[in-house]
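User: Hey, my collaborator sent me this sequence without any context and asked if I could get a structure. I don't really work with proteins. Can you help?
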Amino acid sequence: MKQVAVQGAQVVGRIAALLRIVSRKPEGATLMEAVRESGLTRPTVHRLLTSLAAEGLLDHDGVTGNWVLGPEALLMGSVAAARFPMEDIARPSLRRLAEETGESAFFSVRRGAETVCLLREEGSFPVRSFVLHEGVRFPLGVASAGVAIMAFLPPEEQEQILARWDQHAGTFAPTHPVALIQENLARTHGVGYSVNPGLVLEGSWGMGSAVFDTRGKPDWALSLTGIEPRFRMERQEFLGRLLMEEAHVITGQLQGRA
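Assistant: No problem. I've predicted the 3D structure and written it out in structure-token form, which is a compact way to encode the shape of the chain:
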């Protein structure tokens, strides 16, 4: 049977891509960043951004010139949050991790072939890594949350991602060769937690542990990030145990609500 293209689907896809680009950073994105990352022409991007601003989904910051999320996006997010009460479920674990370790703790969700950071809790240690914050997206297998999730996917799903790794990882591919990723995935599956030894940004380390849904799928992850001296080998077992304990707590709560 011949598949019929949905009318307007291309426009919707472009709008969704631009919204994701703008939402990756609290300060938003410049017009040229949106052009470069979307692959669209400058006139097309400007027209779509202006239209989204007219609907209240975006704002144009008159000081920085950046495009940022608008009030309608906030309202939509507030309504969506009621359907996905992860703030209530994950926040206590993030606070315990941040308080006990002094590191910044994060909660990320899998969205297709990416992970998206949803929540953050700052630790008390004065020197921090700022690689991760709410809205940041990474390809699966990149950064500690993505490795923790991908390590517990079915083997055939892992193989599909690894088969097109360079395309999947994009700009992260040079610092994340396939052989290293396969090694990280195997190690993570064996010990239960992932370690990112400064691959995203030199000197910025991270560790993660997967959170499973009621079907046993790794759809979320807890992670800790900080500077390299705080993630020495002698401390990794301690941090990994804490991550797995809190991931187990959240998994249990999710399954209890099902």
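In plain terms: The longest strand covers residues 218-227. You can pass these tokens on to your collaborator as they are.
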